[in-house]
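Let us work through a complete example step by step.
Step 1: write down the sequence.
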Amino acid sequence: MQSIGVIEAIYRYPVKSFQGERLSTVDIERYGLYGDRGYAFIDHTRSTDASRSNKKLNAKFVPKLLAYSSKYVADRSGNEFPPVQVTAPDGRVFQWGEELFEEIRAVVSPREISPQKYSPEHDDLLGVDEANILLATDVSLAELEKIIGVEADMRRFRPNFVIRYDEQRPFEEFDWIGKTVHIGDTKLEVYKKCHRCSMVNVDPDHNTVNPTFLKHIAKHLDACFGVYARVVRTGTITVDDPVYLSD
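Step 2: predict the structure and record it as tokens.
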């Protein structure tokens, strides 16, 4: 195995398309990070036929969702995910309940939505659309900042793990596809580049939109930043854990 760096940051998103929480350690389950997108809203406006039913509300269509942040307020226990707390952009705090649901319905109107709470025993990806885990590196972000000409907060790209890379080789993670990343007792198989959408244009703190980000990523990186991985072996990952790569 080749040593490639250490875990610099861990991000989890309790509610899909809301801002998430930064962790020091996390359990990796078969679907990805424990509790990642454990809560979501179903967008019935997108359910125009049976093959497109059960579509999850996405900030790609409603960027204002990214002004809300979410976090778990208890440790894991039992057969349900812990209670979640949501903070509105004006500082109001909501629990997962009808008051929050009415708030979000007003934000996304005229879309018709309903709340969805997943279970740790769920067999699929919970509220994740496609992939278990998103990986990014600090050197790739630094190079992207040079390309765009402005500072970029990694939270724009909503990774689960940020790797502090040993080498100054930006975008080398694209070459990891088909390889295995080892972190602690966890094994992840990298299988796909992450094709970015307009969500990267939204500032995670101020909810302002700057189309420069996606424009440059599309022009210079074929609209990709970061890589997707699926879980091969479950375990626990902690900040500063060494990261290894194998064929």
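Step 3: interpret the result. The CA atoms of residues 67 and 205 lie 7 Å apart.
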